[in-house]
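Chapter summary example.
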Amino acid sequence: MKISIFGLGYVGAVSLACLARDGHQVIGVDIDQTKLDLIKAGTTPVVEEGMVDLMASVAASGRVSVTTDVGQALLDSDISLICVGTPSASNGSQDQGAVLRLAADLGKAIARKAAPHVLVFRSTLAPGTVEETLIPILERESGKRDGEGFFTCFQPEFLREGSSIRDYDKPPFTVIGANHDYPIERLRELFGHLPCKFLRTSVRSAEMMKYACNNFHALKITFANETARLCEALGVNPFEVMDLVCQDTQLNISPAYLKPGFAFGGSCLPKDLRATTYLAKTHDVELPMLGGIMQSNRQHIDRAIAKVLESGCRKVGMLGLSFKTGTDDLRESPLVILAEQLLGKGVQLSIFDPDVQLSRLLGANRRFIETQLPHIGDLLKPDLDAIIAEADMLIVGVSNPAIFDALATHARPEQKVLDLVNLPKGMALRAQVEGLCW
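The structure predicted for these 438 residues follows.
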């Protein structure tokens, strides 16, 4: 396959070398003549393990050429990988100057090309950039339509500096955000042999998931380092602690807890977070990330309160009250806090929870609810269908099949539903369903 690569930094240079190694004809494009001269001479422009020998080999193979001519590189290739930098601007925003200028030049070249061309943006881009900014530029400059005269897609890269060749050959997955089948088919030809899942998604999701991945990596590093700081103050071996944490692949190192939903609560997470931050304070250790979790969690509850009040609905049915489906534990349940706040705002509230029976609440669980919602006996209703029938708005707070069935049967077109649990896919509701995360 004939491939042009625009931007020969870490991602572009490593991609060029690996693609040429795999037998493709590759054209490298950059405005920095020094980089081009180095590649032409078989020398790597980036310091990276394995690149010295690999670049020398592919340069000698005759499958690599370099140029500053954007238009000719596009005309002489079938697929273009755009890997130019998108650094931070002074205010923290993304500096897209290079990719915007390149998009205009690529559009002019596409205007001169008869065959449809595939443009693969690999530069990290703010969600919406490809569809709202780059495609309009390409269409304006080329006089052609995306999906007809050319095809755009977004493929996030996951190459770590220091191990980028190994990461290229064994990525965690290949993710392509595209609106058409043709670029997917071409990229499957190019990358489908790699030993990983090949995943198709929307362009915006592909753009956003790169940020989510990097933010999660930063979060994990910070979590380990904050834990280590507290361990040091308490005389605990942090390496031993984190090694034990990583042994749990069921909850800790797993997809568990990584699905958007409502705020957390219960008898464990809030109190242990508070105890951790208190321990840190008493030992003069600052843990800003851990210290901010409770505040962030509360903002999720505040968003739910705001959505209910903004709806203008005064008669609200809450389906669920416990902190988690399948339990009657009301301690620090975000739904209890939500109910308390809505009552204080004058909302007429009716509550149904199949697992909560006031007569069976005991000990700390009963004391907590009597303190937070002293009139809970008047709010809890046994008739689910009646609550649905009488409410202007329904808040779904637990994942319960009986509740889902009742909603599917009795929810009305004029009713509003605030979904806090991610209702089952494909569930048909006549009501106006809204969530906190979509």
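To summarize the output: The two ends are 40 Å apart (CA to CA).
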